[in-house]
Amino acid sequence: MAHMKHAARRAFRTHDHGRCRNGVLMAAERMACSGAVRLTPVRRRVLELLLENHRAMGAYEILERLAAEGWGRQPPLAYRALNFLVEQGLAHKVERLNAYMACMHPPHAHPPVLLICHGCRRVAEVRGETVTDAVAAAARPLGFRAARVSVEALGLCPRCHAQEVQEQEDCGQDIRRQRDRDRGHPPCSR
Ligand SMILES: [Zn+2]
Ligand SMILES: [Zn+2]
Ligand SMILES: [Zn+2]
Questions:
Q1: How far is the CA of 90 from the centre of ligand 2 (A)?
Q2: 34 found inside a domain
Q3: How far does residue 72's CA lie from ligand 1's centre (Å)?
Q4: How far is the CA of 156 from the centre of ligand 3 (A)?
Q5: How far is the C-alpha of 45 from the C-alpha of 62, rounded, in Å?
Q6: Which ligand is nearest the CA of 106, by number?
Q7: Is 82 domain-assigned?
Q8: Which ligand is nearest to the CA of 105?
Q9: Which of 95, 112, 126, 138 has its CA 20 to 30 A from that of 155?
């Protein structure tokens, strides 16, 4: 699935997100039309909220948005819709953040590997067959049948990483300047 690789790259880059959003909404509509899913208004709205960008959202953040729009403020409202979307393969639970993200290429049953930026909470999804196959192979000699494998990598996206490197450089410059001041030197140019 070539478009999955592209979708994964887009997650951390500036891009035309309307295309991502519309593609997923259209896939969800098709699933609803074929009778595969019952896309109630609140379920659809929750999917739209998750699709605003590639950032994972907590259930309470979703609930607050729903409440502000007049959907009510009962936690099951958000949880039920989110669980439904996860069950249908339209969303994924991001365990590390205790949050949710829209699946960018539904419907699928493949196990995702989620690359999670702890700086901006954006999540990219890449194919995980090789990882889950390795887990299944390791489990087999033990007689263990792995039914569900979730793989999540926590780290920094290119943008947050660049920002961190910049901050470290700025900090290093500040330290050098301070040291030069302490010694009575004029500040060094670097
Ligand atoms: Zn996008
Ligand atoms: Zn997915
Ligand atoms: Zn980031």
A1: 7
A2: yes
A3: 28
A4: 5
A5: 10
A6: 2
A7: yes
A8: 2
A9: 138
Does residue 178 lie in a domain region? no
Which domain, by its residues, includes 148? Answer: 2-155
Q: What's the full length of the chain, in residues?
A: 190
Q: What is the pTM of this model?
A: 0.82
How many alpha carbons fall within 13 Å on the CB side of residue 7? Answer: 26
CB under 5 Å of ion ligand 3: residues: 117, 119-120, 157, 160
107 cis-preceded (ω within 30 degrees of 0): yes
Distance linking the first and last C-alpha atoms of the chain: 47
pLDDT in tens, 32-63: 999 888 999 999 999 999 999 999 999 999 99
Among the bound ligands, the one closest to the CA of 128:
2
Ligand in closest contact with the CA of 8: 1
CATH number for the domain harbouring residue 101:
1.10.10.10
